[in-house]
Amino acid sequence: MSEEKKEGFHAPALCPVCGNRMEITRLQCSHCKTELAGRFEPCRFCSLEEKHLQFVETFLRCRGSIKEVEKALGVSYPTVKNMLEAALEALGLEERRELREVRRQEEKTEILKRLSENEIDVETAIEALNQMKGER
User: Fold this and answer.
1) Residues of the chain where predicted confidence (pLDDT) is lower than 70
2) What is d(CA 109, CA 59) in angstroms, rounded to the nearest whole number?
3) Predicted pLDDT at 81
4) Contact, 43 vs 32, CB < 8 A?
5) N- to C-terminal Cα distance for the chain?
6) Which DSSP category does 38 fall into?
7) Burial 90-105 (b: 16+ CB within 10 A, else e)
8) What would the pLDDT profile of 52-85 be if each residue is shown by its tens digit?
9) Closest Cα to residue 71, out of 62, 83, 84, 82?
10) What's 135's DSSP letter?
11) Alpha helices, DSSP H only, in 10-121?
């Protein structure tokens, strides 16, 4: 039995009237029309805005390679890092302060390595390093 991919709407995560979180209370089988009613928790990714969901899909498709995400989206390293941080924040996966400092040092090292290997130019490296300063 082949399943058709149906075009549908993405359920809103927030109420358009009051801004509070929406909850799922009804499910229906598209084949036999069986219905379930109750309170159901949506998956963490279901509440992502479309822009974050598209980024996460691209990031996964690129196997987590920021260089590949840069190419796929046609954006700079700092933009990819900002998109990643925004998606993590939207998922509620912010880092603890100690881990953030370790990550920042690793990012600086990566930027300088990419500069030394001529993968990025000086202007892009300066932009990325300056952007890291502004994130503190």
Assistant:
1) 1-9, 95-98, 134-136
2) 21
3) 87
4) no
5) 54
6) E
7) beeeeeeeeeeeeeee
8) 999 999 999 999 999 999 999 999 888 898 889 8
9) 62
10) T
11) 50-61, 66-73, 77-90, 97-116
